[in-house]
């Protein structure tokens, strides 16, 4: 997924009121930018780190700037939670996800079980597949990618839905998009959301497929890079 225009490098001053940030342009000007992330963004920003932002030309927007990436010095991190489904959709279309490359029909936002699953995949002769996507940006002390970064009742519901879909005979896939490059494997964040961890273990035992895929990030684009190991 390519960014529509070149990103602008800035220095992070602060994030506040969840969706707002103060950033410093290279010329010293302080700007306000939208933060498209409802999570805690733990391990995703510090005062003095750099970030990359996009600028919209839409005159109706209150804030033309959007925080897209964080640069820790060791890793880029995609903090824009509007992008993961676009990245995964492109990867599905380009057959970049090995376990799902046989599916040619891709339907986003499928309504099922009084909920919406991110992708519904079909192919003649293959079982229908339901794929839920989660953006992973939290880093543990041991190069472990963790999810969620705050208690997620919505995430818990999605796991229950996937368990039920699997029990009904469908393929059910939990795809974790590891959107930072300084981690080696994935685990649920048991200290943050023990119920989510419990449900993920139950899902795995039921046969829900767990696919942690790490991205390649740059100032120009984000794409699926490789599958990494997980521990529950």
Helical percent range? 10-25%
For the terminal residues, how far apart are their CA atoms? 30 Å
CATH architecture of the largest domain: 3-Layer(aba) Sandwich
List the uncertain runs: none
Mean pLDDT: 97
Q: Radius of gyration over alpha carbons?
A: 18 Å
| Spatial order of the strands forming the largest sheet | 3-2-1-4-5-6
**Largest sheet, strands/sense/barrel:** 6 strands, antiparallel
Strand residues, percent: 35-45%
Would you report the number of β strands? 16
Summed up, the domain count is 2
Q: What is the CATH topology assignment of the largest domain?
A: Trna Endonuclease, Chain: A, domain 1
CATH first level of the largest domain: which class?
Alpha Beta
Structural class: alpha+beta
Number of helical elements: 3
* Secondary-structure element series: EEEEEEHEEEEEHEEHEEE
Shape: globular
Describe it.
The chain has 232 residues and is of the alpha+beta class. The protein folds into 2 domains: 71 residues, Beta Barrel (OB fold (Dihydrolipoamide Acetyltransferase, E2P)); 147 residues, Trna Endonuclease, Chain: A, domain 1 (3-Layer(aba) Sandwich). Helix content is 16%, strand content 41%. The strands form 3 sheets. The protein has a 6-stranded antiparallel sheet with strand order 3-2-1-4-5-6, with no helix packed on it. A 6-stranded mixed sheet has the order 7-8-9-12-14-15. α2 packs parallel to α3.
């Amino acid at each position: 997924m390519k960014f529509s225009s070149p990103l602008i490098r800035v220095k992070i001053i602060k994030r506040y009121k969840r969706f707002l940030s103060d950033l410093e342009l290279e010329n010293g000007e302080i700007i306000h930018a939208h933060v498209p992330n409802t999570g805690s963004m733990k391990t995703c920003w510090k005062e003095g780190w750099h970030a990359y932002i996009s600028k919209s030309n839409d005159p109706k927007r209150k804030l033309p700037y959007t925080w897209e990436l964080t640069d820790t010095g060791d890793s880029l991190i995609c903090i824009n939670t509007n992008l993961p489904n676009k990245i995964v959709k492109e990867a599905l279309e380009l057959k970049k996800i090995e376990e799902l490359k046989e599916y040619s029909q891709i339907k986003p936002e499928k309504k099922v079980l009084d909920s919406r699953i991110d992708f519904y995949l079909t192919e003649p002769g293959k079982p229908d597949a339901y794929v839920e996507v989660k953006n992973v940006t939290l880093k543990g002390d041991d190069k472990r990618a963790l999810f969620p970064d705050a208690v997620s009742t919505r995430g818990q519901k999605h796991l229950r839905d996937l368990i039920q879909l699997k029990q009904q005979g469908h393929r059910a896939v939990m795809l974790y998009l590891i959107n930072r490059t300084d981690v080696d494997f994935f685990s649920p964040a048991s200290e943050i959301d023990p119920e989510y961890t419990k449900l993920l273990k139950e899902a795995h035992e039921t046969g829900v497929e767990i696919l942690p895929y790490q991205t390649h990030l740059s100032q120009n684009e984000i794409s699926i890079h490789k599958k990494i190991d997980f521990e529950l």
